[in-house]
Amino acid sequence: MRTLILLVTAVFTAPVLAHHAEAPFYDMNRNVSIKGVVTKWQFRNPHPFLFVEVADEKGVKREWTIEFVGAVRLAKVGWSAKTFTPGEVVTVSGHPSRAPGTYGISSASVARADGKIIPGSGRGGNSPELLRGAVPPESRGRGQSNP
User: For the chain, which domains are there?
Assistant: First the structure.
């Protein structure tokens, strides 16, 4: 009986413990903006990741990792495994990683090279840009921005 109780408790508490807050990992009081070249896009659960190579003022290149809300939430506003293509230029704004020596961003807003914001790229997949009518991701290949 004791084993059954422990098993049931584990099943119902594991999902709660698996989800985490941003604040311990990202500095919610600061914002950074980077511009660079997409090296990889991983559209997966629990969080999609965008990898962007950024050159500093001395030409030194660093790879930044951008963490997004869940893939399911982003898919609801048109995101997919084809949202980003390696080699494209993006500008990313969001909260930087707290860990010294790391290059990470969360709560990111992402813009294409032409400056158009990708809808849903802010925290919660429901950024102000989406509400202001930014070009939707599903417009890719229809003469508009390529989300």
Answer: 21-135 (2.40.50.140)
